[in-house]
Amino acid sequence: MTPGCRALLVFACLALAAPLAVAEDAPAGGNPAQGHDYPTQGRVEYVLSCMDDNGHDFVNVYKCSCVIDRIAQVLTYDDFVEQSTFAKYATLGGEGGAEFRVDRAKAQTKKFLTLQAEAYRVCGVAKQAATAAPAVK
Asked: N or C terminus of the chain with fewer C-beta within 10 Å?
């Protein structure tokens, strides 16, 4: 093997190894700065809902975006959808709401509301998540 071919082979190996090293440090499916990869639509829906609860001030765009980014650092998108759904429907009455009142649902709701309240605190959202969603025992 000629020195030029050997150098080209080393360069190719290094070029392939660098992205793999970065991928090992990143959360599954996401950018390390943003956490897990959430669809844009999911992030936008959360921010709009957060703004509905806390006011449509321009500053809340940033604060509510901060909240969903914090949540995305901890939860996969599937876990976020499951936990936020349980939290949203925790007080749904009647037979149809029974699924949201079982122990597993209560535990998921509690985890989500705790995570959301911490994100609200860190991001400076004035209203606490516990007042926006029902408390779960």
From this structure: C
Look up the pTM and report it.
Answer: 0.66
Q: Are 64 and 46 a contacting pair, CB within 8 Å?
A: yes
How much is the pLDDT for 96? 74
Half-sphere exposure of 135 (CA within 13 A, CB side): 4
The Cα–Cα gap between 51 and 64 comes to 7
**Closest C-alpha to 63, from 132, 124, 121, 126:** 124
DSSP string over 64-99 = HHHHHHHHHHHS-HHHHHHHHHHHHTTT--TGGGGG
Structure-token pair, residue 64: 């509510």
Distance of CA 123 to the CA centre of its chain: 14
Q: Rounded to the nearest 10 degrees, how much is the dihedral formed by the CA atoms of 14, 20, 25, 31?
A: 110
The pLDDT, as a whole number, for residue 34 is 53
| Tokens describing residue 3 | 């020195």
